[in-house]
Amino acid sequence: MKLIDINNKYIGLWKGNHRLILSWLPDPNFDSISNLAIKAVANNKFLMFTYDWYHESVVQEGMLLMGNNNKQSEVTASWIDSWGMGGRIMNCYGKMNEQGDISITGSYEVVDSPNWGWRIEIPAPNNRTLQIKMYNVSPDGEEFLAVDANYSPVE
User: Fold this and answer.
1) If 14 and its partner were Cys, which of 36, 39, 69, 97 is the partner (CB 3.0–4.6 Å)?
2) How confident is the model at residue 83 (pLDDT cuts 50, 70, 90)?
């Protein structure tokens, strides 16, 4: 599957719910409304996801720029988020399967610990729903759901 082949399933405006799940916070679950805009950029070779969500009534913003060479299933991406990335860009690498499901992984530094992983899963959307899940991955490979975002197209 090639990213350019499924662009039309993604492109558009989406509205939904962004749930932040972090067990180390005093209140580990934060539900928020979220807006997502997806557009093709750079001659349709990349998809750019821009989104917002709220944490303690403060708007947060993120962006995922994703592409592949359209000859292989390999996907590359850069991800930023105002809440969790501290001004850094996370480069991610992964694959897209024949159904169009995308899985990419990056890593981030943790003080006094080996780097942790960050995995983003985006199943191919259908006409009514788009889901984005993000997982913290411990240095031992254990995964913890950190973000569960579910969207519907804006009509």
Assistant:
1) 36
2) confident
